[in-house]
Design brief:
CATH superfamily of the largest domain: Histidine kinase-like ATPase, C-terminal domain
Distance between the termini: 74 Å
Structural class: alpha+beta
Strand content: 5-15%
CATH class of the largest domain: Alpha Beta
CATH architecture of the largest domain: 2-Layer Sandwich
Helix content: 55-70%
Radius of gyration: 36 Å
CATH topology of the largest domain: Heat Shock Protein 90
Strand order of the largest sheet: 1-2-3-5-4
Number of strands: 5
Number of helices: 11
Largest sheet: 5 strands, mixed
Oligomer: single chain
């Protein structure tokens, strides 16, 4: 519309043809990303046809930004240097305009003027494309790192559950053997032992379901690692205190016996929360609160923030979220109005 208004204000005869050519060039540039080499070049050719039917090149100003956008598009949206073919076509059309339409005297200053219109947009387009490619590569690598972190966390969960299930099955074998020895001499004791075996089997079955859910999409081999739990929480806290983190712990005593998967995951969540507090806390202090109801285990960890709590890789929090999601719990974290970074996790406590 600005170009049409400029043409009408100039009053050059016939100005309407020039306005139509500007509109056609702009319309072609709207679709420049689909085929930039053809459409951007064609838009410029249409634009440079204006001197043949309307005002001369030095009379209208609106064609200049349209031309610059076309040159930029040849550099930004053409993958390789084929965009220079379109630039060469532009230069040839300008030369034809100067040679056959513009009757003014021409010299090397006109060459410099045309180069000044072409070179900056083209260079800017190539730089923009290079930066966009680097940004895309960086985002792709970050996504790969996140996926690898989730996969590693799933592997670790699976290894821990593998160890828990192996322990449960071993206990069942030992208890069943004891019941076999007592089934005739002490039936009541044998019955109690078998009831314990049944309870252990149900817990192992529940953990097996969780394990299968974890490794359903990943067929990696599992290793064996000792599975820590909240019973190891005092030792964990002392390790962080030895590293310089002043931890205030508030735990409901006594905590009930938790399903093995919940117990291991709760320990890992606390471990990661304290690690973040040690790395990013403002004054190397942290507060930890654990409480449990018959249905839910709640974990709250907080520490003063120095403003850089969100500048880490985020993979630790990603691992926590993976654990909480697999167990059907909930997770929230962020910096509150009091300037403290707070993490709240709830894990459902399954009834054995």
């Amino acid at each position: 519309m600005v170009g049409v208004a400029e043409m009408a204000a100039m009053g050059s005869h016939p100005w309407g043809f020039g306005a139509v050519l500007e509109v056609v060039a702009c319309a072609l540039l709207v679709f420049r990303r689909r085929n930039p080499l053809v459409l951007a070049t064609l838009a410029t050719v249409v634009l440079l046809a204006i001197p043949w039917v309307g005002p001369q090149l030095d009379e209208a100003s609106v064609p200049i930004p349209i031309w610059a956008l076309a040159v930029f598009s040849l550099a930004r949206w053409v993958r390789d240097l084929r965009g220079l073919v379109g630039v060469a076509v532009m230069a040839a059309v300008v030369f034809a305009d100067y040679a056959f339409v513009d009757q003014r005297h021409h010299n090397w200053s006109d060459v410099i003027f045309v180069a000044a219109l072409i070179a900056p947009p083209y260079v800017l387009g190539r730089l923009t494309r290079r930066l966009a490619e680097q940004k895309g590569l960086l985002e792709h690598n970050q996504e790969l790192v996140k996926r690898e972190a989730v996969r590693a966390e799933r592997d670790r969960i699976a290894r821990e559950l593998h160890d828990v299930i192996a322990h449960s099955v071993s206990a069942m074998v030992v208890q069943t053997a004891a019941a076999q020895d007592l089934v005739r001499s002490d039936p009541d004791s044998a019955e109690q032992i078998l009831a314990t075996v049944a309870a252990t089997g149900r817990r192992a079955l529940s953990e097996t379901g969780t394990l299968l859910h974890v490794i359903r999409d990943h067929a990696d081999e599992l290793g064996l690692q000792p599975a820590p739990g909240l019973a190891d929480l005092p030792e964990l806290v002392e390790r962080f205190r030895a590293d310089g983190l002043n931890v205030a712990v508030d735990v409901d005593e006594p905590l009930p016996v938790l399903p093995a998967g919940v117990d291991v995951s709760a320990y890992r969540i606390v471990q990661e929360a304290l690690t973040n507090a040690l790395r990013y806390g403002a004054d190397r202090t942290a507060a930890l609160r654990l409480s449990c109801t018959p249905t839910v285990l709640s974990i709250r960890a907080s520490n003063p923030s120095n403003g850089s709590s969100g500048l880490g890789s985020g993979l630790g929090l990603l691992g926590i979220a993976e654990r909480v999601s697999l167990l059907g719990g909930s997770l929230s974290h962020g910096i509150g109005s009091d300037g403290r970074f707070q993490l709240d996790a709830t894990l459902p406590v399954a009834t054995p």
